[in-house]
Amino acid sequence: MYDRVNSTLGASPAMPVELFNKDNHVCVAFRDLVSGEAVQANQFLIFDSDHAALIDPGGDLTYTGLFMEISNYMNVKSLDYVVASHQDPDIVASLNKWLVSTHCKVVVPALWERFIPHFTRPGKLAGRVIVIPDEGLNLELGSIQLKAVPAHFLHAEGNFQFYDPKSRILFSGDLGANLCPTDVIDEPATRLDDVLPFMDAFHKRYMNSNKVCHYWANMAAAMDISMIVPQHGRAFTGKAVAEFIGYISNLKCGVDLVTQDNYRLP
Ligand SMILES: [Fe+2]
Ligand SMILES: [Fe+2]
Fold first, then answer.
1. Which of 25, 36, 100, 86 is nearest to 62 (CA)?
2. Which label site among 5, 33, 171, 242 has the fewest CB atoms less than 10 Å from its CB?
3. How many alpha carbons fall within 13 Å on the CB side of residue 95?
4. How far does residue 125's CA lie from ligand 2's centre (Å)?
5. Looking at residues 77-103, what average pLDDT do you find?
6. CA distance 184 to 171
7. Dihedrals φ, ψ of 172, to 5°?
């Protein structure tokens, strides 16, 4: 079904990158589809046994490019799922287009179910929404069950990451987001220190508190993870996986850091 000759890890950033390709199971990252002033964002395709999910496909900026790219792997009309980690525009603002151009179901956190229709035309979502309850979900996708893993308040109040048990990749959404130089964006970081300067300020401001960071880290430390792949910037692999989980576990952020000084009239 997929015959495209793709770049491999570490190749030019102006191509999709296969994170995994084995036994009729492919995970692809698209990192170069956003142009102009918008923040760089990654979109992901998981393809298994003629079934496919797009994770966090983004907004209008990425729709056309992503549609063209995934058509190299599959008949796009038969896309099974558009999966949204949370409600932000860089996550799922293109939803209406995917609903019109494919037969997909949209998979969204319960907390945002009634906000998502603001991205679509009236009636377009009827019978096409799968809601992820707060405790998470196992989503049937070909031969695997894609796990929607709770990551609430990291940063959105209702937020999920997606764990692929076959590739052992954790698609971590905005957690781990790093705005690194584009020439290294396709090279997974093996040391947290290589990425930290490009992620620390973001996490201190956007993540909610050490309490939720610590709970997430306890969960993640018990998982079998080959790679953590955020929605912005580089992936983490090798030693950087445990280093990243340790960093998040100890992170003081969000409400930990604010004082009365942050709440004064301008
Ligand atoms: Fe976000
Ligand atoms: Fe984001």
1. 36
2. 5
3. 31
4. 23
5. 95
6. 19
7. -100, 10
The pLDDT tens digits for 111-132 are 999 899 999 988 889 999 999 9
- pLDDT score, position 14: 52
Q: Separation of 3 CA from ligand 2 center, angstroms? A: 30
Q: What are 259's two structure tokens? A: 């004082």
CA of 235 to the centre of ligand 2 (A): 14
Distances (CA, A) of 208 to 72, 83, 220, 253: 39, 23, 17, 6
Cβ atoms of residues 29 and 38 within 8 Å: no
The rounded Å distance from CA 5 to ligand 1 centre is: 32
Q: What is the pLDDT of residues 38-65, one digit of tens each?
A: 999 999 999 999 999 999 999 988 999 9
Q: How far is the CA of 4 from the centre of ligand 1 (A)?
A: 31
pLDDT at 249: 98
Tokens of 230: 């955020």
- Listed in order, strand segments (DSSP E) in 37-87 are 43-48, 51-55, 81-83
Please report, rounded to a whole number, the percentage of residues in the chain having pLDDT higher than 70: 95
Dist CA 255 CA 260 (whole Å): 11
Helix then strand then coil, in percent of the chain rounded to 5, is 30, 25, 45
Counting ligands in written order, the one closest to the CA of 155 is: 1
CA–CA separation, 54 and 197 (whole Å)? 29
